[in-house]
TrEMBL record:
InterPro entries: Battenin_disease_Cln3, Battenin_disease_Cln3_subgr, MFS_trans_sf. The keyword Transferase does not apply. This is Battenin. Keywords: Lysosome, Membrane, Transmembrane, Transmembrane helix, Transport. It comes from Fundulus heteroclitus. Its main location: membrane. The keyword Protein biosynthesis does not apply.
């Protein structure tokens, strides 16, 4: 009898533990899919940059115009240059995101998460439709802007949303955003290489916004205090703070994390403008290295990749560009999925190494001493590893080292770092492109 009693001890508690583990896995997978869907359109637009810029205004191409582009005989440059640098598409893909990330964190907390997700889904769907069906470059650029709005608002919203869940969802988010790079670049490059037109390829990708809806509303298992359709900060501030503390502390038990903020300091209501300014100052040590990493890598991606063209190679110029993007995203996927294995606190190391990459490839473009595209493929893979590692480690340590009541605002605000670096890289790409193409 005594043995039977010991076997049946606390079955409700076991069920509760199993349900908790199931919920954590659902949330991890949900954030992974949200990261994939959120960044997918952004990546596809960069992969399609060469095709977008070579699209003829007079007709809607049914095949990739970039694959048919010949070197202009009037161009005396030794480079196979398009009239406009792909940095133009990069700017259209990042400036709206940058503007959103600069200003939205101060007001976006008033908008419940459910409405934000619906808006992001609508913008994403419109971007694919406009770029695929347009007959003019400027309409395609508007579509790219819509993709940027969706990606920017989605990134800061989902990073803020993560504070309502176990911190391990950041691993899922990192893996998903890295996977978006590979999936977006590989699918676009692969389908074009297989003979589909850019129009049909982009229309197929309309399934991605639908997947975002399913991931958010069907997979996530949020806490009751999550402001889904309405937000009353005065009523929920204390509940939200206590719930976030519990979730974050659970995820850090094995790392023996010690909170430095007294419990009474965490339940003082909404964060004031003065406190937000204090948080922003504290984030500089994270945001500056992240911005430098992304400046260097997107200067490579949109300022130099187009000029790293090898004539005696089995891939055309446009195909080389698309596969450069794909291999870069493979590196990003691997490093953004690395949090479960290793964590780096000194993100500035990635910044230094990425700057070295950019300088090396700048000289490679100028003096054309690299013998084969295969060497560029290896360097670009390494570039992606550095960028992805900088991203996930930055947000992991922001989440870990920021006081509980400031985490939601801090996670949203810090996302401006990568966008600022990318925007500056897009601006620098214009004079660099003009210089090399005038040689």
């Amino acid at each position: 009898m005594e043995r039977a009693a010991s076997i049946n001890v606390d079955p409700p508690q076991q069920q509760q533990q199993q349900a908790g583990r199931c919920g954590k896995w659902r949330n991890w997978i949900g954030f992974c899919l949200l990261g994939l869907c959120n960044n997918f359109g952004y990546v596809v637009m960069l992969s399609a940059a060469h095709d977008i810029l070579t699209k003829q205004d007079s007709k809607n191409s049914t095949a990739s115009a970039s694959d048919k582009l010949a070197v202009d005989s009037s161009n005396s440059s030794g480079y196979d240059c398009s009239p406009v640098t792909t940095g133009a598409v990069l700017l259209a893909d990042i400036l709206p995101t940058l503007i959103i990330k600069l200003f939205a964190p101060f007001v976006i907390h008033k908008v419940p998460y459910g409405f934000r997700v619906l808006f992001c889904v609508a913008m994403s769907a419109m971007s694919f439709l406009l770029v695929s069906l347009s007959s003019a470059v400027w309409i395609s650029i508007v579509g790219v802007i819509f993709a940027s709005i969706s990606s920017g608002l989605g990134e800061l919203s989902f990073l803020s949303l993560s504070v309502f869940f176990d911190r391990k969802v950041l691993e899922g988010w990192g893996s998903g955003t890295g996977g978006a790079g590979v999936a977006g670049a590989f699918l676009y490059s692969g389908l074009i290489q297989a003979g589909l037109s850019p129009r049909i390829t982009l229309l197929i990708m309309l399934v991605v916004p639908l997947a975002m809806l399913v991931s958010y509303f069907g997979l996530l298992s949020p806490v009751p205090s999550l402001p889904q359709w309405r937000r009353s900060e005065a009523e929920n501030a204390a509940v939200d703070s206590e719930e976030r503390d519990r979730l974050m502390d659970e995820s850090e038990d094995e790392e023996e994390e010690e909170e430095t903020t007294a419990p009474e300091d965490r339940t003082m209501g909404p964060v004031t403008p003065r406190e937000k300014l204090y948080v922003v100052k504290g984030l500089v040590r994270f945001v500056a290295p992240l911005g430098l990493v992304y400046f260097a890598e997107y200067f490579i991606n949109q300022g130099l990749m187009e000029l790293l063209f090898f004539h005696n190679f089995f891939l055309s110029h446009a195909a080389q560009y698309r596969w450069y993007q794909t291999i870069y995203q493979c590196g990003v996927l691997v490093s953004r999925s690395s949090l479960c294995c290793i964590k780096f606190r000194r993100v500035w190391i990635f910044s230094l190494l990425q700057v070295v990459n950019a300088v090396f490839l700048l000289f490679a473009v100028r003096f054309q001493f690299l013998p084969s595209a295969w060497i560029v493929f290896a360097i670009i893979l390494y570039e992606g590893l550095l960028g992805g590692a900088a991203y996930v480690n930055t947000f992991y340590f922001i989440s870990k080292e920021t006081e509980s009541r400031y985490r939601e605002f801090a996670m949203a605000t810090a996302s401006v770092g990568d966008s600022l670096g990318i925007a500056l890289a897009g601006l620098v790409a214009f004079p660099v492109h003009k210089y090399f193409c005038s040689l």
